[in-house]
Design goal:
By secondary structure, the chain is α/β, with parallel strands linked by helices. It has 15 helices and 13 strands. It has helices at residues 2-30, 45-61, 77-89, 105-112, 134-150, 155-160, 182-187, 198-205, 219-227, 230-249, 255-273, 279-297, 304-318, 324-349, 351-358; strands at 31-40, 65-72, 94-103, 115-118, 123-125, 179-181, 193-194, 208-214, 383-386, 393-398, 401-407, 417-424, 427-432. Helix 9 packs across helix 11.
Length: 437
């Protein structure tokens, strides 16, 4: 009898163990792989990079669900639209979870998920464009409407978040942008669910996360994200330009030039990393610097070469900024700060330091037929002939003496009669004598 009882107990224990193993197996097979991508803080190219990398990794890993956690006051429209496109075009199930605020461009991201969850106390909307021009309002209004239509939300309410001229009866009046609390969003069917936290999101969806992979910004992405902020970019560009300008005053190539090049390298490498700029933009900027250097060191005055170089530099800076207004402000600020810095350098080092770097260090010899130009007041109003073409710099001969001269701006051919009109230090200015052939 005793053996019979032990045998039953053995069978019961075996059955429980088998049931437990089967339950664990089923539970393990029902557990899903979840990727969480935080869209927290200012929306910029750094968050775009994180979203791209997160979705790509989720796809490679065979993720079952991607959750975009949102808490933002907004940011730049261009990266926001690109993130929205990534979410809409993803072949993975996506959820957007507003844990705080989804304002401005953040509202567009929130609407892009297949299911929109909102936490208690959260809100969505207030997507006014900056500047509030009809061109920008119209474009963003259509983006919001198209996104809402794609996800089965009310397109008119979505448009009212962008355009304050849109009135929706009983919900929002003309002249006011629409912003909804979580309960209002649920009531007007702009949000799908209210969830206290992510675990609550999983419960509502009826999924058991076996593993949650939380994407984070890498150190490189964090650094690039800071550097590509417009005000940081402006500071670094100004330091870069002033560092190179300082080399004009300092003999050799030393600390100022190194700091300048490093600052410029940091800026452009950050924008290249985010995919905003390419190497063509770097080449454009460096070509502009080169043309300006040629204008300063090779051809006195400020003509076509200098203007072209300045345009190339400004164009390369323009394309670094996310929109027209930020670009104009950025370019103007860099110009003002650079000019102010240059004036300060002139005050500290004196104009003589600049003159030494852009003029010859020694006079040409008499044996070669040249005379030193410094202090040649005796040449004022003298006439002579050009020995070489003046473009605008060249050589002219006065009473058998060859002298370096510069024309008043126009090209003068070889063998043309000229007269000295001005002498400023070692700079001898001439003009063509009218009627001479």
């Amino acid at each position: 009898m005793k053996r019979r009882v032990n045998f039953k107990l053995f069978l019961l224990t075996g059955f429980l163990l088998l049931f437990f193993c089967c339950f664990n197996y089923v539970a393990a097979n029902n557990a899903v792989l979840v990727y969480k991508i935080p869209l927290i803080g200012y929306i910029d190219n750094g968050l775009l990079k994180l979203a791209e990398r997160g979705l790509a990794e989720a796809r490679r890993s065979g993720a079952d669900l991607v959750v975009f956690e949102i808490d933002t006051y907004g940011g730049y429209l261009d990266p926001a639209i690109k993130i929205r496109d990534l979410i809409l075009r993803s072949n993975l199930p996506t959820v957007t979870y507003v844990r705080g605020r989804a304002w401005s461009a953040g509202a567009l991201l929130a609407l892009a998920g297949e299911n929109l969850f909102m936490a208690e106390g959260s809100s969505i909307g207030a997507a006014e464009t900056r500047p509030a021009d009809e061109k920008y309002i119209s474009a963003l209004r259509k983006e919001f409407k198209a996104t809402a239509e794609t996800r089965g939300k009310n397109p008119d309410l979505a448009a009212a978040m962008v355009d304050k001229e849109i009135a929706v009866a009983g919900i929002t009046a003309r002249g006011k942008l629409l912003t909804l609390t979580v309960d209002e969003a649920l009531n007007y069917q702009m949000a799908d669910y209210k969830a206290a936290n992510l675990n609550n999101v999983f419960e509502i969806l009826g999924v058991t996360p076996g593993q949650i992979v939380e994407m984070e910004l890498t150190m490189a992405e964090k650094a690039a994200r800071v550097i590509t902020r417009p005000h940081i970019t402006i500071i670094l560009l100004t330091i870069g330009i002033l560092g190179l300008v300082a080399e004009v005053f300092v003999p050799g190539f030393g600390l100022p030039g190194t700091i300048g090049l490093l600052s410029l390298a940091v800026v452009f490498s950050s924008y290249i990393y985010h995919g905003v700029a390419g190497w063509g933009l770097v080449i454009l900027f460096l070509a502009g610097i080169l043309l300006l250097a040629i204008e300063i060191f090779v051809t006195p005055g400020f003509g076509f070469t200098g203007i072209t170089g300045l345009i190339m530099i400004m164009a390369s800076i323009y394309f670094l900024f996310p929109d027209f207004d930020a670009a104009i402000v950025g370019i103007a600020t860099v110009l003002v700060l650079s000019i102010a810095g240059f004036i300060i350098m002139l005050k500290i080092f004196g104009s003589s330091a600049l003159s030494r770097r852009i003029s010859l260090g020694e006079s040409q010899t008499k044996e070669a037929g040249y005379l030193a130009q410094s202090g040649r007041k005796d040449l004022l109003h003298k006439t002579g002939k050009t020995v070489t073409p003046l473009r605008p710099v060249g050589v002219a001969e006065f009473d058998g003496e060859r002298v370096d001269v510069v024309s008043e701006g126009s090209y003068i051919d070889k063998g043309v009669a000229v007269m000295v009109t001005q002498i400023a230090g070692n700079r001898i200015v001439v003009k063509k004598i009218e009627g001479d052939e």
